[in-house]
Specification:
With 399 residues, the protein is of the alpha+beta class. The chain has 10 helices and 19 strands. The chain has a 7-stranded antiparallel sheet with strand order 1-19-18-9-8-7-10. A 6-stranded mixed sheet has the order 3-2-4-16-15-14, sandwiched between helices. A 6-stranded mixed sheet has the order 5-6-13-17-12-11, with no helix packed on it.
Length: 399
């Protein structure tokens, strides 16, 4: 499934967030009921045979649901007149089936309420709206939440990057003795700095900073590749002194007493949202044939001719001093078709600074499965908190 993440990441152009983990199970259920060219294309997008797709989707959803801090759901709504193939319907998670009444406003309210409930209010609306021709809506929700094992401190972000420097931004800073949380890798497109921010429940966020001018898709793609080739990353403990990588500097500094080496991290807090029209990238998701409304493509779903009339995803990611939250709702609508003064001791300090656009991957630490990915172009402004409160309090109140 990380292959779909990498291919989707390659299309990134500006600030965005997306979840291939939110799309993949739905594509798998569609592939299970598809016929003809649509079945072939969906199978190629998934990277496995269509007759194995539904089982793999159920296995993935079960594994995700077992992770602390992760919630998943699948929903199916059909018109009362649409008869489903029993075997296909039985392959979906239990209690997934609802009814489209034909009252478009009421149906839209019901779909939006489901999206909000399943994401804890992070996503307030379904990315696909029912229309008169909608026979079926298949949707998935994914929400994840983690708290940092070592929280950050909020600071004003000091940056020379002009678009960010125009408005004071909310920076996050922390110091650690674990140098190997950061590393540098050489890629065909340039050097990439990777910082691992560890969270509870085995959920982590990797921040990725490429060389200036390196395209977002290249940086994110490199980050996905590094998950499967970690030995290509030079860890912080082995970096040379001086400018060691993008946003990375290794220095010697004097101390009054023996001090362990330190990793000093400065990054930006962000709140990124994005809406994606999956049919605009139909080749990426194996939906080219399935969108043709002149014929039916899902005879394994229903004897009635069906085509994909709409497909979308709404996604969100929040990175703050105490933790990270992300959510995505994906939906398919099927329609009828046709340094200080010199002192005694010397120690090493690594400065890792993410003060210009960077990428992120939210993933499960042990399986390396990417749950959400994105690119930060507009970090949060430094807020004026009443009564001396901080963003930490706001994040805690959002639980």
């Amino acid at each position: 499934m990380n292959g779909l993440t990498r291919r989707w990441a390659a299309t990134a152009r500006g600030g965005t967030v997306f979840s291939a983990a939110g799309v993949w199970p739905l594509l798998a259920f569609l592939a299970d009921g598809a016929t003809g060219p649509a079945r072939t294309e969906l199978s190629e997008a998934l990277g496995l045979p269509a007759d194995q797709a539904a089982g793999a989707a159920r296995e993935l959803l079960g594994a995700l649901a077992a992770l602390p801090g992760v919630d998943t759901a699948v929903g199916l709504w059909t018109k009362r007149t649409l008869k489903l193939v029993p075997e296909w319907k039985a392959g979906l998670p239990a209690e997934a089936h609802g009814v489209l009444t034909g009252d478009l406003a009421a149906d839209r309210r019901a779909l939006d309420a489901w999206a909000a409930e399943r994401t804890g209010g992070l996503i307030g609306a379904m990315p696909v709206a029912p229309i008169e021709d909608t026979e079926l809506v298949l949707a998935g929700a994914l929400a994840l939440r983690t708290r940092w094992l070592r929280p950050f401190t909020e600071v004003p972000l000091e940056t020379a990057y002009a678009p960010w420097a125009d408005v004071e931004r909310l920076g996050l800073r922390r110091t650690s003795a674990v140098l190997d949380r950061v590393g540098v890798a050489g890629t065909p497109d340039g050097w990439v700095t990777e910082l691992k921010v560890l969270g509870t429940g085995g959920l982590d966020v990797h921040l990725l900073l490429g060389e200036e001018g390196m395209a977002p898709g290249r940086v994110l793609g490199a980050g996905v590749d590094l998950l499967h080739r970690p030995r290509t990353v030079v860890p912080g403990s082995r970096l040379p002194y001086g400018e060691a990588g993008p946003g990375l500097r290794v220095v010697k500094e004097r101390s009054a007493r023996r001090e362990p080496p330190t990793l000093d991290v400065v990054t930006a807090a962000y709140d990124v949202t994005a809406d994606h029209d999956l049919l605009a990238r139909h080749e990426l998701f194996g939906l080219t044939a399935a969108r043709d409304t002149s014929a039916g493509h899902f005879h394994g779903v229903s004897a009635a001719p069906l085509a994909v009339g709409a497909a979308g995803q709404s996604a969100l990611a929040r990175f703050g001093a105490l933790g990270f939250r992300a959510a995505a709702v994906t939906a398919f609508g099927a329609v009828g078709a046709g340094l200080p003064p010199a002192l005694r001791y010397v120690t090493t300090r690594i400065d890792a600074t993410f003060d210009r656009p960077f990428g992120f991957l939210a993933l499960h630490r042990h399986s390396r499965l990417v749950l959400a990915a994105g690119w930060v172009t507009d970090p949060l402004p430094f807020p004026q908190y009443p009564d001396g409160k901080h963003m930490n309090n706001a994040w805690e109140n959002d639980e």
